[in-house]
Hints:
By secondary structure, the protein is of the alpha/beta class. It has 14 helices and nine strands. It has helices at 13-22, 34-44, 52-56, 69-76, 82-85, 100-112, 125-131, 142-152, 167-195, 200-207, 215-225, 235-252, 257-271, 282-287; strands spanning 3-7, 26-30, 47-48, 61-64, 91-94, 116-119, 122-123, 134-139, 156-163.
Amino acid sequence: MSEVAFLGLGVMGYPMAGHLARVGHTVVVYNRTAAKASAWVGGHGGASAATPREAAAGRDLVLACVGNDDDLRSVVLGPDGAFAGMKPGAVFVDHTTASADVARELHAEASRLGLGFVDAPVSGGQAGAVNGALTIMCGGEESDFAKAEPIMAAYAKSCRRMGGPGAGQLTKMVNQICIAGLVQGLSEGLHFAARAGLDRQLVVDVISKGAAQSWQMDNRHKTMIADKFDFGFAVDWMRKDLAICLDEARRNGATLPVAALVDQFYSDVQAMDGGRWDTSSLIARLSKTKG
C-alpha cells in the first residue's frame, strides 16, 4: 500500500479517489471547493489539504483529474502547486483529458525537478469511475508508468502505456474522434427509424446482434429513444475534447471532416440549452426537441 494524494474531486475524481482508499492506500485529497474534500474524508477517511502542495508533500504518487490545461497547470505549478511539495522520485499522474502539449510541458518540468510525470486520460465515463472499470491510456517513461500502474489498478479494467510523453492524450483524442462519429450515426439511425414508422426498440434488438453493434448502441439507445439525456459525459466537455482533437489535427496534418461536423452539431445542442446534456443528445438536434 502507498501514500498517495488525489487532486480534483469532480464526478470522476471523487469515486476514483474512493477506490484508492477502499483498497487500502493512505489518501490525502485536495479540491478547489474545500467542502467537497471534507465530505470525501467524511465518507472515506484519510485527510484533506488546503493546497495541492500540502496534499502532495511526502506522497509516493500524486494523481489528478481536473477540467482542462489551465486547471491542470494551476494544481501542478507555482508555489502552492503539487510539484513544489513532491519529494524526489515521486510520480505525478494526470487523469485530465488535456492537450498533448501540456503533457509534454509538465513532463519536462517534472524531469527538471527530479520527478516523474504520466499523462493518463481515462475512458468509461462516470459509471466507469464509480464501478472501478475505467480504461486508462498512458504516456511517459516506462519506469514512471511501472510505479503508477499498480495504484491505478484500483479503478481500472485496462491500463496501457501507449508511448512517451503525450501519447496517452493522443490516444484519448482517437477515442473521442471515434465516439463522435458513432453517436452521430446512432442518432441518425434512430431518427430515421422513427420517421419510417418502425419500433425503434425492436430495430435495435435486431441490428445490435450484427455489425452495427457498439457500446453507444448498447448503453445509450434506450435513453435516446426516451429523449432523456442526463447520463454520462456532458456536451460542454465533449466540445472541449473535440477542440483539442481538431487543434492537434491542424498541427499533425490529419483530416477530420466528421469530427469537425459533429463538433458543430454539438454547438447546435448547446444553443438548445443542452450543454449539460450527455453526448447522446445529438438526436435531440434532429427533432429540435429534448422531449
